[in-house]
Amino acid sequence: LNKEIIALTRQTGQQMTKSAWDFPESGSSSPAADEEEKPVSYRALVLTGYGGYDKIKLQVKSMKMPPQLKAGEVLVRVKACGLNFAELLGKQGLYELLPSPPVTLGMEGSGVIEAVAEDVGDRVIAMNRHGMWQELAAVPANRTFPIPDGMSFEEAAALPINYMTAYMMLFEMANLRPGKSVLIHMAAGGVGIAATQLCQTVQDVTIFGTASASKHETISQGGVTHPIDYRTKDYVTEIRNISPKGVDIVLDPLGGADTQKCFSLLKPLGMLIVFGAANCVTGQKKNLLAMAKTWYNQLTLNTLKLMQTNKAISGFHLGYIQDQELFERTLLALLELYRQGKIKPRIDSSYHFEEVAEAMKRMHDRQNIGKIILLPEPKKTEEKPKSNAEAAENVEKNEAAVSEKKEEATEEVKAEED
Ligand SMILES: NC(=O)c1ccc[n+]([C@@H]2O[C@H](COP(=O)([O-])OP(=O)(O)OC[C@H]3O[C@@H](n4cnc5c(N)ncnc54)[C@H](OP(=O)(O)O)[C@@H]3O)[C@@H](O)[C@H]2O)c1
Questions:
Q1: What's the pLDDT score for residue 51?
Q2: Which residue of 101, 134, 255, 414 is surrounded by the most CB atoms within 10 Å?
């Protein structure tokens, strides 16, 4: 379907000149004159300002039907959305690719195509720079991919960002080969579990994974060779004790002083890939001191020094990948690995839109093992959050987590026009 839509768009000479990431939110273009317009309402999670969980409001918006889609767009009825660390950053004003509030959050989801030319009803994975956390989302057709048989909407929403990030880093940048060793930080998180599964598609890869101690059993079962509790032990010493020469590849989502440690752990000809700055996030709101510390402690070295170390440093950011061919090739390769049973997203828990604050708090408090999913479908009154039972058992009380008063983040807003 995706290919057909793209082909259709091209036939009519409506090729997208902007980056496919740069599409507007749903229902923002001019109406079609000849069709009767019926407004439909839909729920959306909107960041209304920077700060705590209370800045994310559950709003009811309305859209005229049939929808007014731009060239190359499809309208997706969203069934499940992925929560990413980027949204914790975005809430604090630390994610540069997110437009200023008010803005509908969400970069990935899954659902059913509701409108595009005559083809509707296909189950798709859908991605956009933002705006996926809403029941109806207009997305570029070339950012939708058919969901394989047997894959749930939750799995489909969990796959794109985490697995594409891990895949491109491991296979496009680091060229992972048999017999190599990889250090995966945040190994029990969304990207961490994706990276672990992808490492296992290559023979004899040794995986060092840092995670809170309560998650070690799960990540060991998932393929991490040496789980390390970074909160009570120095991971550099631990890794050197096991592998005195260090490791071949380090994936660094932390930044600051950790980047220096990661670089020090590389074997000669090894590669460090920096792809995040989680150390900037401490409390619920922006922490200027943590940001300054992360910035101040980052690794700086000149190219001559780099040459003398025989090591490589790369940076990776999926949001800046503009190459459509690379994008499609990667996602299709991942769907094939899923079909072959080699990868499978691990869903930590699912929350309804009303519970977005609890979902974000779970990630912020370092409790998740795998992916947290948001469900647009309204919560039934007696329903509890659908947590993965095993994950819930493994969750330890996080003494280090900043104790924060639980804030109610949802607010029904009367239907407003988009
Ligand atoms: N560059 C890119 O294109 C790209 C794309 C996707 C993600 N990322 C980055 O990859 C990292 C992982 O993202 P994700 O979405 O998969 O999230 P995630 O790993 O599921 O994030 C939550 C987990 O990270 C660990 N953690 C470490 N430091 C933390 C902190 N300061 N605050 C909260 N949790 C912390 C916690 O587990 P433990 O305590 O068990 O370690 C927590 O459970 C993030 O840094 C994100 O920005 C980058």
A1: 95
A2: 134
Beta bridge partners of 58: 45
Task: Give me the pLDDT at residue 103, please.
Answer: 98
Mean pLDDT by 10 residues, the chain (418 residues): 39 33 40 62 97 97 86 92 97 95 98 76 92 96 93 98 98 98 98 98 98 98 98 98 98 97 98 96 87 88 93 97 95 97 98 98 97 95 58 34 32 34
Residue 385: partners with Cβ closer than 8 Å, 6 or more residues away:
349, 350, 351, 352, 355, 358
Q: Ligand 1 pocket: which residues have CB below 6 Å?
A: 84-86, 161-162, 165, 186, 188-192, 211-212, 215, 253, 275-276, 278, 281, 316-319, 363-364, 366, 368
Q: What is the pTM of this model?
A: 0.84
- 374 in Cβ contact with 351 (< 8 Å): yes
Return the ligand 1 atom nearest residue 85 CA: 15
Separation of 191 CA from ligand 1 center, angstroms?
7
Nearest in space to 108 (alpha carbons), one of 73, 87, 78, 81: 81
Q: How far is CA 232 from CA 210, 212, 254, 255, 400, in A?
A: 11, 9, 17, 19, 11
Question: In the prediction, which pLDDT does 410 show?
Answer: 37
Q: Judge if the upstream peptide bond of residue 178 is cis by omega within 30 degrees of 0.
A: no
The pair of structure tokens assigned to 11 is 């036939």
* Protein fold of 2-159+347-417: Quinone Oxidoreductase; Chain A, domain 1 (3.90.180)
- CATH class for the region spanning 161-320: alpha beta
Residue with token string 């083809």: 119
Q: Please count the other Cβ atoms lying within 10 Å of the Cβ belonging to residue 290.
A: 16
> Domain segments of the chain: what residues?
2-159+347-417, 161-320
- What residues contact residue 401 under an 8 Å CB cut-off, 6+ apart? 364, 365, 366
CA of 136 to the centre of ligand 1 (A): 27
For residue 383, the model assigns a pLDDT of: 65
The terminus-to-terminus CA distance of the chain in angstroms comes to 28
Q: What's the residue count for the chain?
A: 418
